[in-house]
Amino acid sequence: MTSSSLPARSVAVAEALTAAGIPGEIVVLPDSARTAAEAAAALGCAVGAIANSLVFRCDGEPLLVMTSGAHRVDTDYLARQLGTGAITRASADQVREATGQAIGGVAPTGHPAPLRTVVDTALQQYEVLWAAAGHPHTVVPMSYEELLRVTAGTPSAVTAD
């Protein structure tokens, strides 16, 4: 797929992936993959292999959490793990401001500026992860190590169980 056939936001993601040496090619899905369940169904993979990109607010700054689609982030637990103040969900406007992307299509990279990122250690059990690629109809495969590299993320459990 050529970058000219990708949505504009996905082109920025493709460029960031290339710059980071991540070989995964962005896939355009015929239907929306706004949720982990939709993405897993479209890709024929386990919902846990979907690397959800969730944006929170933490200590006055955006915090990107790349979490397994198989569970929810426990913000109190994560704040204790990180030694920070309260972690709260970002609004749709705050997500777009921090990432340049809309909820449902937020990629791990391709943002206007680097974001502090946490990568869920539950994702390391999957050989191939699928992350949104800047648009609700685009996804990109990568390994856990590539996800850590492209985000410069901190590995952490995001829930106690």
Describe the fold and architecture:
With 161 residues, the protein is of the alpha/beta class. Helix content is 27%, strand content 24%. It contains 5 helices and 8 strands; from the N terminus they run H-E-H-E-E-H-E-H-E-E-E-H-E. It has helices at residues 8-19, 36-43, 75-82, 92-99, 144-151, and strands spanning 27-28, 50-58, 61-68, 87-89, 116-120, 129-132, 138-142, 154-156. Strands 1, 2, 3, 4, 5, 6, 7 and 8 form an 8-stranded mixed beta sheet that branches. A hairpin with a 5-residue loop joins strand 6 (129-132) and strand 7 (138-142). The protein is globular and about 40 Å long. The mean pLDDT is 92.
Portion in helices: 25-40%
Beta content:
15-25%
Gap between N and C termini: 39 Å
Anisotropy-based shape: globular
> How many β-strand stretches?
8
Structural class: alpha/beta
Number of alpha- plus pi-helical segments: 5
Name a few traits of the molecule.
single chain; 161 residues; alpha/beta; eight-stranded mixed β-sheet; 5 helices; 27% helix; globular
